[in-house]
């Protein structure tokens, strides 16, 4: 999986900082997560091919997480897009976008589907033979979801020395990869695990922004490989986090530790802070493997 941070700051765009937007490349998918102002500029800057984006996930309807969407949808039309586009977002976004398109007489020349989210419980919202995507209900001032992206388990790997010694015909190799027992050339049953190896470990990524500290999400993200958790404030400003329903770097680290995540990525920083290393220092006191999101930064895992 490859994660590209297009924007990772809160509230308003500035000269050198962008509001929330990310691209997750997983199992031949290019998923766009949130779409703050300037997203399409950052997509170009980071050389992400527009045509590969077929699914967009919007966490909530605060402007710094979706104000770039109508512009991107319009640009897709100008580029004569033909592929369908699916948008997964809280109920209300469809009304917002379609009103803008109606009043500007700029309907798309491609099929645009809105999947409106209303559930307060985690639900499966996308699935194919390679990937599953679940919502992560978050605790914010308005209805908000994070998203959990999970690779499905791949095929088993052939242990070619064992396969050849077992005298299995090549016609059965596909069945072996799929986990079935097969017969050798003499009709004897060959146990699958004796001639194959387990598939590569499936990877997972959880996106959690914006939210107050909430242990309710732990059962959903337990054991996640990479957790992106908002850290709008430092602990010294926790009194600002509570009424705005945001988190501190320390609180994000606590969630990562309790979830037994492998890596924590911090982001959604308030622009009041000049030194972002303070976020990493604070979180590292609780959780060891901490990374800082930065506009234009990529993570491969």
- Ranges where pLDDT stays below 50 over 5 or more residues in a row are none
Q: How do the SSEs run, as a string of H and E?
A: EEEHEHEHEEEEEHHEEHEEHEHHEHEE
Radius of gyration: 22 Å
Biggest β-sheet: strands ordered side by side in the sheet: 6-5-4-3-2-1-18
Number of helical segments with 4 or more residues: 10
Number of strands: 18
Sum up the overall morphology in one term.
globular
Oligomer: single chain
Given helix and strand content, the structural type is alpha/beta
User: How much strand content do the residues show?
Assistant: 25-35%
Mean pLDDT: 96
Give a brief description.
This protein has 301 residues and is of the alpha/beta class.
Write the layout of secondary structure elements.
Elements: E1 2-7, E2 21-26, E3 29-35, H1 39-45, E4 53-57, H2 69-78, E5 85-90, H3 93-103, E6 112-117, E7 124-127, E8 131-137, E9 145-151, E10 157-158, H4 160-165, H5 173-177, E11 182-183, E12 189-190, H6 192-195, E13 196-197, E14 204-208, H7 218-221, E15 226-230, H8 238-244, H9 249-258, E16 263-267, H10 277-284, E17 290-292, E18 298-300
Parallel strand pairs: 3-4, 4-5, 5-6, 14-15, 15-16, 16-17
Antiparallel strand pairs: 1-2, 1-18, 2-3, 7-8, 8-9, 9-14, 10-13, 11-12
């Amino acid at each position: 999986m490859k994660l590209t941070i297009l924007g990772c700051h809160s509230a308003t765009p500035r000269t050198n900082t962008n509001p929330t937007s990310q691209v997750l490349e997983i199992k031949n998918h290019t998923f766009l997560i949130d779409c703050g102002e300037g997203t399409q500029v950052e997509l170009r800057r980071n050389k992400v091919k527009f045509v590969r984006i077929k699914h967009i996930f919007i966490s909530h309807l605060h402007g710094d997480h979706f104000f770039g969407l109508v512009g991107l949808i319009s640009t897709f039309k100008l580029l004569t897009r033909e592929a369908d586009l699916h948008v997964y977002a809280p109920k209300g976004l469809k009304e917002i976008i379609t009103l803008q398109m109606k009043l500007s007489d700029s309907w798309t020349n491609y099929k645009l589907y809105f999947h409106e989210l209303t559930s307060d419980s985690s639900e499966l919202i996308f699935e194919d033979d390679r990937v599953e995507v679940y919502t992560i209900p978050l605790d914010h001032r308005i209805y908000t979801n994070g998203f959990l992206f999970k690779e499905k388990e791949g095929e088993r790997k052939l242990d070619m020395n064992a396969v050849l010694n077992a005298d299995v015909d090549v016609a059965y190799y596909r069945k072996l990869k799929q986990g079935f027992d097969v017969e050798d050339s003499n009709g004897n049953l060959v146990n699958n695990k004796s001639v194959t190896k387990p598939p590569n470990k499936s990877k997972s990524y959880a996106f959690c922004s914006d939210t107050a500290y909430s242990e309710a999400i732990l059962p959903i993200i337990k054991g996640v490989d990479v957790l992106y958790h908002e850290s709008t404030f430092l602990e010294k400003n926790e009194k600002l986090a509570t009424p705005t329903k945001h988190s501190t770097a320390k609180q994000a680290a606590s969630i990562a530790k309790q979830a037994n995540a492998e890596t924590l990525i911090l982001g959604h920083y308030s622009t009041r802070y000049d030194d972002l290393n303070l976020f990493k220092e604070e979180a590292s006191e609780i959780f060891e493997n901490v990374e800082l999101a930065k506009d234009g930064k990529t993570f491969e895992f």
